[in-house]
Write a structure and sequence with these properties.
Number of helices: 0
Largest sheet: 7 strands, mixed
Helix content: under 10%
Shape: globular
Strand content: over 45%
Structural class: mainly beta
């Protein structure tokens, strides 16, 4: 089993920033890639970003390129999502997820483990 815990969500004004954290524990191994997703009520969960175990060549959805940065922390199995220039349309519950298969994916079905989510609200 793998456990994922997100933190760092909250209320922020437009053009503000937040940094989300995802802490993984349990039977996760070094080869797991970690992805960030978001979901609003009534819509499907959508992929935001993904990073492989090495941290190289991360993947970003077009709607966050240039604003969000994914990275791995010094602590093993910790992944961050730095979100800058946030807009009201970024309001959602953000989830981190882990998958053991190779390569990035924006499809939720490809991920084996999920965190409980953290709410991000962008509003003035």
């Amino acid at each position: 089993q793998v456990q994922l815990v997100e933190s760092g969500g909250g209320l922020v004004q437009p053009r503000g920033s937040l940094r989300l954290s995802c802490a993984a524990s349990g039977d996760i191994t070094d080869y797991y890639g970690i992805g960030w997703f978001r979901q609003v009520p009534g819509k499907e969960r959508e992929g935001v970003s993904w990073i492989r175990s090495s941290g190289r060549n991360p993947w970003y959805a077009e709607f966050v390129k240039g604003r969000f940065t994914i990275s791995r922390g010094n602590a093993k199995n910790t992944v961050f999502l730095q979100m800058n220039n946030l807009q009201p349309e970024d309001t959602a519950v953000y989830y981190c997820a882990a998958k053991s298969t190779y390569g990035p994916s924006s499809r939720a079905i490809d991920y084996e483990y999920w965190g409980q989510g953290t709410q991000v609200t962008v509003s003035s």
